[in-house]
Specification:
The protein is built from 15 helices and eleven strands. It has helices at 2-15, 20-30, 73-88, 92-118, 135-160, 174-197, 229-242, 247-251, 255-262, 283-289, 302-311, 351-364, 386-395, 401-404, 409-415, and strands at 36-40, 43-47, 58-62, 65-69, 271-275, 294-299, 320-324, 337-343, 365-376, 419-426, 429-435. The chain starts with a helix and ends with a strand.
Length: 437
C-alpha cells in the first residue's frame, strides 16, 4: 500500500504543472533548439535537426495498439512517464515491473553516459571545449528516455493481456552484469580507437577459416567482432547500453505473434528454429513461456553459441539444442519446423545473401508454418528517426545497413514464397510476420 500511495503521489505531481512549467521555461531559455552536428572522429554528422520545427503528432497503428510519437522532447518524456505510470500502477505485478524496468533503464543509461565520459571527456561528441553534456547529447538522451518509457508501457500491456509472463527482476543476473560492467568500461576506449581510425578488420586469427567474408569484421567496432569468447560475454551488455536497457523489451514483441500461433495449434510436437540466436537474448523468455516447445538455436559463431548454452543451463529440463551453421545454408531438411524466429540478422547481411536466407527460411518451414522476422525499423517506419538511421551505420560500422533500410521486406519474402501478415513496431525494432502457404 505504501508503494502504491507513493506512486499515486508521483503521478499527481507529474499531472500538475508545479515541476513541469518552470523546468520547461528554464530549458527553453537555456537551450535554443537549433540544428547542430555531432563530430565522431574525423567525421561530421547532423543530428536531430527536426527538434527545431513544430512537428505534428504521428499516430502509428499496430496490432499492439496506437503509439504516439511526439518530438517535443520534454513534453514527450513527461507524457510517456504519465502513460507508463498509469499503465503499471494497477496492481502488485505492475509495481514489480516498474521496479525492474526503472532499475534496468537507469542502470544502462548511466553506463551509456559513463562510456561517453570515458571517450576523451566527450571531446569527440561536441564542438566546444566546455565540460559537461553537450546540447545535442542532452536532446538525444531525453528523447531516448521518452522512447524507452513508451516501449516499456507497450511491454507491460502485453504482459497484462497474457501474451507472455512477467520477466524476472534484473537482480537474478547481477552475477553476469557486474563483471560485464567492468569489461565494458575498459573496452570503450578500444572501440572508440577503431571508430576514429575506421579499423574494422581486427579479428583474431581463426582456427576455422570457414566463415563468409562479410562476417569477418568488427561489427559495431566491437573487440574481435563476433569471433571470440570475450566478445560473446560482453555482447548483450553492449546492446543494452546502446538501447538504454530496453533491448529485451523490443525483442519480446516477437512473443505476441508466437502466442497467437501456439494457441491456434498443438504445441505438443511443435518445433521452433531460432536463426542467428547470438548469445540467446530471447531464449529465457521462450523457455519460461513455452517449456514444452522444442527449440533449436543456430548461429555462425561458436563462441556465441557456447555463451548462449552457458547462460541457459538452468533450463536443462526444456528441449533446447544449439547448432553451428550459416543462415544461407541451413543444415536442416525441408519442412522441418513449425516456427522460424530471426532477430537482428538481415541488417548485417549483403543484399544477395538476404535473398538466399529468405529462400532457406521458406524451405525449412512446414506448410502453414510461421516466420517471425525481427530487425531494425526502416526508412518511412518512423520518419522522425530517419536521421538516426542514416547516422547509425557510420558510427557503429554496419556496412550493409544502408541497403537494408531501403529493402522492401514484403517483396523480398513474397518472392521467396511467403505470404505476408502483420507488422509490429516497438521504437527502433520492427516485427514482421510471414506464413508459408
Amino acid at each position: 500500500m505504501a508503494k502504491l500511495s507513493f506512486l499515486s503521489c508521483c503521478r499527481a505531481l507529474l499531472q500538475s504543472n508545479i515541476l513541469y512549467s518552470p523546468t520547461q521555461s528554464w530549458v527553453t531559455r537555456k537551450f535554443i533548439l537549433v540544428s547542430k552536428s555531432v563530430k565522431v572522429g574525423n567525421r561530421q554528422f547532423g543530428i536531430f535537426g527536426s527538434f527545431t520545427t513544430e512537428i505534428s503528432r504521428k499516430e502509428q497503428t499496430t496490432q499492439l495498439g496506437k503509439t504516439p510519437h511526439n518530438q517535443n522532447s520534454l513534453e514527450a518524456v513527461r507524457q510517456s512517464w504519465l502513460d507508463f505510470l498509469q499503465t503499471v500502477t494497477t496492481g502488485p505485478q505492475g509495481v514489480g515491473y516498474l521496479l525492474g524496468a526503472s532499475v534496468r533503464v537507469s542502470y544502462f543509461t548511466v553506463m551509456s553516459l559513463l562510456g561517453l565520459k570515458i571517450v576523451d571527456n566527450m571531446n569527440q561528441l561536441r564542438k566546444s571545449k566546455k565540460r559537461g553534456i553537450s546540447l545535442e547529447l542532452w536532446r538525444l538522451i531525453v528523447g531516448m528516455l521518452g522512447e524507452c518509457l513508451t516501449a516499456c508501457r507497450q511491454d507491460y500491456s502485453n504482459i497484462r493481456y497474457g501474451y507472455y509472463k512477467l520477466p524476472p527482476l534484473p537482480t537474478r543476473r547481477w552475477n553476469d552484469i557486474l563483471p560485464a560492467t567492468l569489461d565494458y568500461l575498459l573496452d570503450v576506449r578500444m572501440v572508440q580507437a577503431r571508430r576514429r581510425e575506421n579499423r574494422y578488420r581486427e579479428i583474431p586469427p581463426l582456427i576455422n577459416s570457414d566463415f563468409p567474408e562479410y562476417y569477418k569484421r568488427n561489427f559495431h567496432f566491437q573487440t574481435d567482432g563476433y569471433l571470440s569468447e570475450y566478445s560473446a560475454k560482453l555482447y548483450e551488455f553492449q546492446v543494452e547500453v546502446l538501447f538504454n536497457g530496453v533491448a529485451d523489451v523490443m525483442r519480446r514483441q516477437a512473443l505476441v505473434p508466437l502466442f497467437n500461433y501456439v494457441h491456434s495449434h498443438s504445441i505438443k510436437h511443435m518445433k521452433l528454429l531460432h536463426v542467428a540466436c547470438g548469445t540467446g537474448g530471447i531464449l529465457s523468455d521462450l523457455a519460461e513461456n513455452y517449456p514444452q516447445l522444442r527449440i533449436v538455436n543456430l548461429d555462425l559463431s561458436p563462441y556465441y553459441l557456447r555463451e548462449a548454452r552457458r547462460r541457459h543451463e538452468t533450463y536443462s529440463n526444456t528441449y533446447i539444442r544449439f547448432v553451428s551453421g550459416r543462415a544461407e545454408e541451413l543444415v536442416f531438411r525441408d519442412n522441418s519446423f513449425d516456427v522460424l524466429l530471426n532477430i537482428y540478422l538481415f541488417h548485417e547481411l549483403p543484399p544477395n545473401v538476404r535473398e538466399q536466407v529468405a529462400k532457406e527460411f521458406f524451405r525449412v518451414l512446414k506448410p502453414g508454418g510461421m516466420l517471425i522476422f525481427v530487425d531494425s525499423i526502416q526508412e518511412g517506419d518512423r520518419s522522425d528517426l530517419n536521421r538516426l538511421l542514416q547516422m547509425f551505420p557510420q558510427i557503429y560500422h554496419e556496412p550493409y545497413y544502408p541497403s537494408y533500410v531501403k529493402t522492401d521486406l514484403k517483396t523480398l519474402f513474397e518472392s521467396a514464397g511467403f505470404r505476408s501478415a502483420n507488422i509490429y513496431i516497438s521504437w527502433l525494432t520492427k516485427v514482421c510476420v510471414f506464413y508459408k502457404p
